[in-house]
Design goal:
CATH superfamily of the largest domain: Creatinase/methionine aminopeptidase superfamily
Helix content: 40-55%
Shape: flat
Distance between the termini: 30 Å
Number of domains: 2
Strand content: 15-25%
Structural class: alpha+beta
Order of helices and strands: HHEEEEHH
Length: about 160
């Protein structure tokens, strides 16, 4: 597979799309607190993306009408926003994407709800710490000359506790 070099204007559009996704993700993460509903978080995400001149990427998927995929606690990825409220200590995950100038960007993050107020969950905190460390290890391997397998192997070592 050969890579097609991108023009400066394409790279700028990619960057702008990524910024929209990052800003929308940040807006949702800042709104997370006990008592907020997944539907309210969805509304924030959708509003932020459109306010910034983009469209929600996930809404381009046939049959999907949401700007986000939201999960709580042990739910598997790509959960549909629904009218449930977050509680202290919940593990909340968001997947969000935007389309700007024809370029799709996507980001995901997980947090403990109410974590700042002192709610502790050793198991959930350990899970989040391992995920973030695996992310950083994978990013460190994403360089010229390496393959996807190098990235995945570095992440796997962290997850298995040997990295």
């Amino acid at each position: 597979m050969s890579l097609v070099p991108r023009s400066k204007s394409q790279l700028e559009l990619m960057r702008k799309s990524g910024l929209v996704t990052a800003k929308a993700l940040k807006a949702v993460l800042e709104a997370i607190k006990p008592g907020i509903s997944l539907l309210e978080l969805e509304k924030i995400a959708n509003s932020e993306i459109t306010k910034l001149g983009a469209q929600p990427s996930f809404k381009t998927v046939p049959g999907y009408s949401w700007a986000t995929c939201l999960t709580v606690n042990n739910e598997v990825v790509h959960g549909i926003p629904r009218p449930i409220t977050l509680k202290e200590g919940d593990l909340f995950s968001i997947d969000i994407g935007a389309v700007f100038g024809g370029w799709h960007t996507d980001a995901a993050w997980s947090v403990l709800v109410g974590h700042e107020s002192g709610v502790k969950s050793h198991e959930k905190e350990k899970f989040l710490k391992a995920g973030e460390e695996a992310l950083w290890q994978g990013i460190a391997q994403a360089r010229s000359g390496n393959k996807i397998g190098d990235i995945v192997a570095s992440m796997q070592r962290v997850v298995e506790g040997v990295g």
